Amino acid sequence: MNTSHLPARGETRPVDDRRSAKQISDNNPILNVGILEEKWGRGALGHARWEALIDGLKQQVGDFTPANTDPESRNEAMFRLARVVNYIDHDPGVERIRNHSVGDGFLDAIGSYDSSSEVGRLEAFSQQGYPALEEVFNGRVRGDYRTVEEITAGPLFKGLHAALSDEELNAFKAKIGGDWESPEFPTDRRAELAANAERVLQIIDRKGGKESTAGNGKIDGLREYASLAPDLLQPEFLHTLPGSEARRLVQFANHGFSALHQQ
């Protein structure tokens, strides 16, 4: 299941994906374990929480249950559910506890009830819809005590400064909540803002792109020298290659989250 770009309302299966709802469910075991399992929870409160979650998910992705007698509608709903659940499972900015890790195929139901946890994010999605998946601005996750200097020391931030003009960098900072380099903010606040920026950069890196290697911990796709390519007539594209991670970074600075939804 592709987890490189944010799921979107109305998303449908690729043209060559003709799997049924059952096949999609079988291919994604994460849909049948943890809080998504019907037998999850003990007692009336646990079952009520499960029912509320399932009802909310149906409101957002469509009815993926056997109660939906329209096969095509159910197939698409199950595909959208799989996209959302797998995206949350692979989201590096969601809080995890115990031995759970990114992409482990299980949404941990133990921990905080707010949207910083895996199940909390899924429940937020069931109530708020797709905007809940864009909650990247929670700062450092619980247990992350890195300073702003430690967060920004990695190669992801080198790509940030190389790809963006001063104006674009300011726009990027505005979109993630503020300037982590500003001495006007307290130390902890700067670290939280840097963590927000890191999260966006991680999402872009995870997507990959042309002239880019997905998940290699840096932003690829910078031009080594200027050329006479047609897109250079647009100043915002001066330093980045078309379709690359660096170009997506520029697009995020200029347009926000719509850049992260694009395949």
Question: Your description of this structure?
Answer:
Residues 1-23 are annotated as: Disordered. Residues 8-20 have a biased composition (Basic and acidic residues). This protein has 263 residues and is an all-alpha fold. The protein has two domains: 21-134, no CATH class; 148-261, no CATH class. It is 44% helix and 0% strand. It contains ten helices and no strands. The chain has helices spanning 21-27, 43-61, 71-89, 118-128, 148-151, 155-163, 166-176, 187-207, 245-255, 258-261. Helix 1 (21-27) packs parallel to helix 3, helix 7 (166-176) crosses helix 9 (245-255) and helix 8 (187-207) crosses helix 9. It is globular and about 55 Å long. It starts with 20 loop residues before the first helix and ends with a helix. The model has no long low-confidence stretch (mean pLDDT 84).
Question: Key terms for this structure?
Answer:
263 residues, mainly alpha, 2 domains, 10 helices, 0% strand
Short overview:
The chain is mostly helical. It has helices at residues 21-27, 43-61, 71-89, 118-128, 148-151, 155-163, 166-176, 187-207, 245-255, 258-261. Residues 1-23 are annotated as: Disordered.
